[in-house]
Design a protein that fits this description.
This protein has six helices and no strands. It is an all-alpha fold and about 120 residues long. The protein is globular.
Length: about 120
């Protein structure tokens, strides 16, 4: 079944040999490369933040960490060359791995402290 924000069978066949973690690759074999790539495609096409990744793709933070690892290792560039969409993938990598949110928006410690009201303390 093809979903709106995921790769179709033809696209997957075109890139499946470019992704790490295949049985013939050294090191650990990936759980499900296609599901992972579809998770990244879903994020890219929907424009949603990583935390809004649907549960069917797994834990958002695990997907993000793997995405980042592939970006550092040049996997997305290989895939984009294979698909002929190099500029799109480079923009996605730039947007998703370099841009940082302000500390107050990222849930940093600090901010408003809960204080008991004077009326509550007296009561």
């Amino acid at each position: 079944m093809s979903r709106r924000y995921e790769l179709n069978d033809i696209q997957w066949e075109q890139i499946k040999n470019q992704v790490p973690g295949k049985k013939q690759d050294p090191g650990r074999t990936a759980q499900n490369n296609r599901l992972f790539v579809n998770a990244v495609v879903w994020i890219a096409r929907s424009g949603a933040p990583w935390r809004d990744l649907p549960e069917r793709f797994g834990k958002w933070n695990s997907v993000f960490k793997r995405f980042r690892r592939w970006a550092v290792n040049g996997v997305w560039q290989k895939i984009s060359r294979e698909l002929g969409v190099e500029e799109e993938i480079e923009s996605l990598i730039l947007d998703s791995t370099i841009v940082r949110v302000h500390q107050h928006a990222a849930g940093a410690k600090g901010g408003k402290k809960n204080k008991l009201s004077v009326a509550h303390e007296a009561g």
